[in-house]
Amino acid sequence: MSAPPDLPDVVRRAFDVSRRSGYVSFCRNETGRLLATLAATRSGTLAEFGTGTGVGTAWLRSGIRDDARILTAELDPSLAEAAGAIFADDDRVEVVSADWATLRDKGPFSLLFLDAREPTDSGADSIVDLVEPGGVVVLDDVAPCASWPPLFEGRVDVVREQWLTDERFTTVEVMVAEDAAVLLATKR
To answer: Both ends of the chain: CA-CA distance in Å?
Structure first.
C-alpha cells in the first residue's frame, strides 16, 4: 500500500498523547488516510463516536474542508480531556465527554466514524437517522473476510451482514491493510 511516510502534524500530536496516556487502541494509519480523504469530500458536521485520545479525529481534521466541522464524543472523561487538549485552539473540532447517544440531536452528520465491534451501537438501525442522505458511515475494526455469510471469530458476523444487505445504505467492505478492513456505507 503506497502512502507518504510522514504523518500530518495533528496526527503526530495525537499519537504523542496516546503514548503518554498509555492508550493503545486507536485508528490505524491506513484507516486514517481513508478518513482524511473522505473528510475532504464532506461539508457540514462530521462526527466520531469513541474518540479515544483523538487519533481518528486528528486524521479527520487533517482532511477537513473549510465548510465543515468535527464533533467527537468519548465516554471516558480522562481520554476526552486528553483528546480535547489536542484541539483546544481549533474552533472546528469539538470534543465532548459523553455517551454518543447524547449527540443524536446534533445530527444529521455528513460523515460518521465509529467502531464496528460495538454491535449495540453500530448497527444500521441505530445509525440510519444520524446520517444525512448521501452521508457516509465508516465502521472501523473489521477483520477482512472473503466468505458469505461474513464470519468473525468463527461465527456469522451479524453486524457486517446487516450493513452489507441493508437497503437504506450502499455498503462495501474495503481492505485498508492485509489484516484490516472498514465498512464504508453511503445512505441512500
So the answer is: 30
Cα 145 to Cα 134: distance, rounded to the nearest angstrom: 26
- The range of the structural domain enclosing residue 98 comes to 9-187
61 within 8 A of 92, measured Cβ to Cβ: yes
3-state secondary structure at position 99: coil
Residue 3 lies in a domain: no
> Is the residue at 4 inside a domain?
no
Distance CA 37, CA 60 (A): 8
**1 within a domain of the structure (yes/no):** no
Q: Give the sign of the dihedral formed by CA 178, CA 141, CA 123, CA 132.
A: negative
| Max CA distance (Å), the chain | 47
Domain count, the chain: 1
Distance, CA of 48 to CA of 147 (rounded, Å):
29
Q: What is the pLDDT of residues 13-72, one digit of tens each?
A: 999 888 888 777 678 899 999 999 999 999 999 999 989 999 999 999 999 999 999 999
CATH number, residue 178: 3.40.50.150
Q: Give 96-155 pLDDT, tens digit per residue.
A: 999 888 888 899 999 999 976 665 566 888 899 999 999 999 999 888 988 899 888 889
Residue 8 carries which DSSP code?
P
pTM: 0.91
CA 144, chain centre distance (Å): 17
